[in-house]
């Protein structure tokens, strides 16, 4: 029987990237054009730090190495405030574009940048656009080789860009293409019948009613699994410049921005223990150890 993890464990995680680095605009604003757009990440990270501090909560910040290089003071402020510093890669490239060797180079570069800035070992990772999937199962082996202790990239949902629907909703040990094993801490889902629905953050948070996220958190607590949420600094900035996007992409990117701070304020102040993933790592591993290993390359 699997060991019970702390029912009150919740984590607000922040994927720290600029608004012009999101996957939606990759074909319109590539890395060679990033300098043409004004940086706004520091101001919004400070808004989030103030909100965390107001409730005495701590979280996990998955930070892009390219952003950390330009804004080292921001990274140190996050670390000094007691939040976990984790990796989001270096250039926000989907793993499908990087390949195994490119991923290792990108990963190690980000790890070194972040560790030099915060003075602590970086043990957690989240892939851009949740791009650890069946086709990129080799990424688990690379993460193990590079000294990471957990990943939070495998979204157990159906989506056109990411997701492994058959993956567990609880933390578990995932097995890579070559046999590497790593703790996987998936984002929050709400189970309705046999289907798991995404309620963890991002566009779901901005565009859907807040009660869906609250139902997901309540269900996770009842079942003894952590409620891991994710947000991006730009999602709390109603004034980000408008980029050249099609109608649907504009809708997904800009809808709900003006309401995001108030909604997160409700979630952060809703009670329970909110803390970095790293702080509960041993308990999560103990709980996952009693569950069946999930072989990623054999999924679905």
Verbal overview:
This protein is of the alpha/beta class. It has a single domain, classed as TIM Barrel. Helix content is 36%, strand content 15%. The protein has 10 helices and 12 strands. Strands 1, 2, 3, 10 and 11 form a 5-stranded parallel β-sheet that branches. α4 packs parallel to α5 (138-145).
How would you describe this structure in keywords?
300 residues, TIM Barrel, five-stranded parallel β-sheet, 36% helix, disordered N terminus
List the helices and strands and how they pair.
Layout: E1 9-16, H1 41-55, E2 60-63, H2 65-70, H3 72-80, E3 84-87, H4 95-118, E4 124-125, H5 138-145, E5 150-151, E6 172-175, E7 181-184, E8 189-192, E9 195-198, H6 202-207, H7 210-223, E10 227-231, H8 247-254, H9 260-268, E11 273-274, H10 281-289, E12 294-295
Parallel strand pairs: 1-2, 1-10, 1-11, 2-3, 4-5, 5-7, 6-12
Antiparallel strand pairs: 6-7, 8-9
